[in-house]
Amino acid sequence: MKRLVAHLRDYGAAWLMGGIATSVVLASILAGEGGPFRHTTGAAVRTGDEVSNFVLFTTVPYRDLSVTTGTEFASMTDRSITSQWCYLRRDGRDGDLVPWVELASARSGASPSLNPLSSSALAALGLTSPEAARLVTTHCRFQRES
Fold it and tell me: Which keywords, in A-to-Z order, does the entry hold (predicted)?
């Protein structure tokens, strides 16, 4: 019984947060929003000779985390930027529930704006809010249209 109480004391909050995060992601996916996976496929849809929904991912390591910037272009032939985003995640094994947070985003060629960051999400990644904000300028690879 002591082991159970100690386990719940030490890991109960993590189980609760994982359950809440899983529920939110599942609800988002079921609602058709794609959840956190909406930008991660980089899938291209071929229509004739043109490829649409072309996405370029750039990942920069930071401690035991990865900072990934996604840049979505109008198509393979039209390299105008439609949207960009930058997220931070802990590297994990396949099948692991991986903590992540979207740091910033930008529409078209606009300057990126910092997203609201929850302290619990940052704590799961071992970061403070100022550290996360600094990563937007040092590790996110937002592109400017030329």
Answer: Membrane, Transmembrane, Transmembrane helix
